[in-house]
Design a protein that fits this description.
It is found in: Cytoplasm. The protein is built from 28 helices and 31 strands. It is an alpha/beta fold. The strands form twelve sheets. A four-stranded antiparallel sheet has the order 9-8-17-19. Strands 13-14-12-15 form a four-stranded mixed sheet, covered by helices on one side. The longest helix has 28 residues. It binds one RNA strand through strand 10, strand 11, strand 15, helix 7 and strand 16.
Amino acid sequence: MTDSADISISAHLTALPDRVGVDGLEDKWRAVWDEDGTYTFHNPGERSAVYSIDTPPPTVSGHLHVGHVFSYTHTDIIARYKRMNGFNVLYPMGWDDNGLPTERRVQNYYGVRVDTSMQYDPDFVPPFEGTDGKKMDAKDQVPISRRNFVELCEKLTAQDELQFEALWRKLGLSIDWSRTYHTIGEHAQRVAQKAFLRNLERGQAYQQDAPVLWDVTFQTAVAQAELESREYPGFYHRVAFRFEDGTPIYIETTRPELLAACGALIAHPDDERYQRYFGQFVYSPLFHVKVPILAHPAAEMDKGAGIAMCCTFGDQTDVQWWRDLHLPLRSIIQRNGRIVMEMPDWIEDAEGKRVFEQIEGKTTFSARKAIVEELREVGDLDGEPTPTKRMTNFYEKGDKPLEIVTSRQWYLENGGTDKALNAELIERGKELNFHPDFMRVRYENWVHGLNGDWLISRQRFFGVPFPLWYPLNEAGEPDYANPLLPSEDVLPIDPSTDIPAGYTEEQRNQPGGFMAEPDIMDTWATSSLTPQIVTEWAEPGQEAFFASTFPMDLRPQGQDIIRTWLFSSVDRAQLENHCLPWANATLSGWILDPDHKKMSKSKGNVVVPNKPIEQFGADAVRYWAASARLGLDATYDEGQMKIGRRLAIKLLNATKFALAIGREDENHHVADEASATWDPQDVTEALDRAAMAKMALVVKQATNFLERYEHSKALEVIENYFWQFCDDYIELVKNRAYGTPDAQGNVPAEAAVKSARTALGMGLDAFARLLAPFLPYATEEVWSWMHAGEGSVHTAAWPKPLPYATAAFNVSPDVLAHAGATLAALRGIKSKAKVSMKTPIERVRLAVSDNVRESLRQSLADIREAGRVIGDFSLEHAQELINQMQSDGDETSDAAEETIVVTESELGEPPAKKR
RNA sequence: GGGCGAUUAGCUCAGUUGGUUAGAGCGCCACCUUUACACGGUGGAUGUCAGGAGUUCGAGUCUCUUAUCGCCCACCA
């Protein structure tokens, strides 16, 4: 037997406001939560008592977007739910201030650019502040030192972070604000450098001098994960190469400007048109360079002329040919995207040299124009160029096609070359619970399609530096194979200002001295370690913290960065910890504008989130976000926010009503405080028990949904019952709860009154808890009325079915459903007659099925009062309806509703209208 | 070209393992100021379930196919 003391609810009731509203609740409760440390993480010391969340650090240089509100609300609902379930929730916040977006924003905002040759100026003042939005020519930007630039980055991101924090707080995210990190901060840098050094030690990180994809605008290498293919207009040029005797052989190319870099012509080994030429040589037009005709299976017979010119490098197939066929490296594109200034040594022909001089230093675009002119003049251009659209690789943040240049870069293993690691990462993907599950496919597609290890070095300025130096030999040349490494305890370091052990600053860049690795790490090389950053991985003295928080429970993120953030995090945890970094990943969808277009800055249809929060309230905006499932795109819908606002207001009013009964003075004020105990044993009336039975069911369903990360369904069942509770249950028990005498003047029994009041109290207490993850402000407000001095609803216990099931005492929830349907039928009589709901019903006959009649009998007095039936109220058989019920054997409340039919009614005199 | 998701009322969306007459809210229409709520309440009308074919006694649901929308990957001669 359960002791009722265990399941009864003690309430401390405060005075109630005469009128309630949702406006202003945000500021009121946010201040209280801050002061009380409601969301502060307390490490219980055991992993099972913690729920840890790897919060996505927003790119602070990006703009606030209503999409942020959407996905962060989903995570907050889970955080609040877990907290109410007794978990110590580690819910930190990070800021992604590392990387190119910040660099670009700083350049525009302050009108500056980095010049690595400049010295640090401690008194530097930027020429502008807030030129954001205006386009500024690079030549007008003031050159400054790298260190000055980094300082400006830090200054600006600090401002951006304040904006984000203000939004998150207003939205009511239950973040522990004492646990924040920056991807460029000292801690994150230490983790990134430490992990890199350990990767290096294990041979998982390595350098390679090889062709890489190169962005000419930002002048940095980029990784496979950062590629984006876009349609790019071009022209096919049909160009003649010639044999010794002048016989032409035609190739087609979209990049004639690379003619000087051609090292071979290549056709498929099975291509009968060209088989007889394999091994022979031809001369390139204009430059007259002798190149072989070779066979390689990557050549496609049906593309262009079927034979291609291989240049180093026009595309990734060129790289493959160059490697497989051991072709000479003939590079003519500089890292800024222009043709080299020096005459290539493989061009020996005088006319060839003259042509090359025409294109030296030109952009690929102008060089192409010049080459086409020259080709046309000598007659080696067959016909006119024909326009084509082709898909070309771009850096996702760049606007010029990527070039391929050969350079020394750092790589990290990611399964792109190592089949065993690839299989392990696929396996990890199967272990991870994706919500929704179909997102796993995107992960697997990506891992299967990897074609190389992860290029992690970037030739940029604002980021985490590689923590190493290279010794210089007597000729001043670096020994890349034997880098000088710092010890872990001095991390983070910046090799451009810090000095390797055993050297002095004077030896920097001197023969026999050392030089710093100039590159920084890819921003994802830091972001991929957020699980390790927030759980204090490898921090001396934090071993216990790490043990009780890692592997984490949840990674929430956008579906667009599965290949980057999610995958790279899994990779890093596999290399470092040999496990998944988290057990669950939730993927949110996009926000579409009302015309079903994806919201994006470039489309100019972005809604700034502060506006709807101000207009409808944070709870209302959260409600809109919560009503969308994970992984599905949602439409920006202010109508949905209005509904959320209405729900919050309804909760305030309904709770106020339930708590005010029996405590009001003659003016309906409730000024006193009171104690109450809602004991399930006091719920004795059938209708009240039915309401509790339904509550037990709803609690169970909502809990199951939230356990499965289906917050929208949880909200739906809670909300549906809440409205039924308000519209039907409260209306039905109102008179009894007040102790109002019936038409015959009979006063309800004391126990019946107590039963109603107890069920109302238990019900609204439950709704406050059930809705707390969704509407944190309104629920906290009503909680404060009934549990004054007991702390926040957000640290209260999530409801369990037991107290409600106990109160239900085996009464079916159908009793409430049937009573509600009957009440609706009585209302329908009045609505059709277009009279007030207060109008009494003299006489009414309802046709109902047997089981409904049985059920209604238990709540008939309440129905009679709520419907104001003052005379005959008969429930009769309706044979055809009964047959219907029996034929399908269905006794659900839905079917029951349709078996209540008004067969006859007579209305009394409507009440006199009040002025 | 491959893959994933979507397509249900004017709008936003539910619809579990196939089951009788497909639901909710908004909006719309009508009515009601009723001692929790006019930031309200009550009642009502509303559908070629994108199209086609198939499996089945029975299909919004399963299979195939077409179309449209969104996204991911692959196509650079």
